[in-house]
Amino acid sequence: MIKNPYISIIVSTYNSEKFIERKLLDLLQQSIIDKIEIIVVNSGSKQNEESIILNYCKLYNNIHYITTEKRETIYKAWNRAIRIAKGKYITNANTDDLLRRDALEILAENLESHNSVGLVYADQFITSDPDASFRDVKSLKTYYKLDFSPTRLLWRNIVGSQPMWRASIHFNDNIWFDENYEVSGDSEFEFRVSQKYKLRRIPQILGIYYRSASNENKEFQDTELSRSESLLVKEKNARKFLEELNRNTFGRLKLKILLNMIIPRVVYSALRLIIKKYFPTKQIPPKIFWYWFASLYFESRGNLQKAKKYCETYAYANDYLIKRQLERLNNLEV
Question: Using one digit for the tens of pLDDT, what is the confidence trace for 94-105?
Fold first, then answer.
């Protein structure tokens, strides 16, 4: 058993028998395996992961196993594992994803050398082949993450799978995963981390993300749940972001919002396409995002009439965020 591990890896498994052995082998091949502990949480799986995991526990003393009788949210499983984690840094490892052999070493080194950064993430390959590996890189599509900025984080999930963060975020700052979420708890967690620390993208491809062709990934199994949770997280985070801005920052944000909205739609759309093609990590939100954000901004300043006006501009688009915000504003006026 490693007394003072450098990194704690959290693996939550539920009906992942076909992936679990490959996942453990993938982690055991990491370049700094002698500084790593692996905590596997079997969250009431109906398959036979347990026998595979226990065999590896006998062979390797840095693998710890937790099991629960009933299925629980992945974020509850992660919190359960984190509470017994001893590492300075923590990462989650999805059973169907893979890491480059030096991925954890590079992620940890970046946290070591950037004291103001609380969480790091990197680019990935993406595949629908469950047997793909780094030997197949020529046939894999590259998944470029977006560089961190507050507005990008409010717009979409820019971190994705395979991040690494400081354990002190939990034990000192008391920031944990919200166990009420089913699929969007990581996005909500990342926003709360960003309120205290910087997030940093590492411009290297350090992993392979498995995107099931039959939509077996958790976030695609219930698209309505994924969408509703994503909307809730965006709304909650945006309002929290606006609440905590000081007067000077508010003024700069207002200018940024207005500048993005006065650009003609055709020009703005063309600009987005150019940036996406030539600078994929610098992508900007669609114009409708700025109208929604402007509505929240003016609502936070007490100007409900102007907030409503910005929603009505895009009401025809049938966008969920715009619709929800407009309904909210109509209810406030009653």
Answer: 999 999 999 999
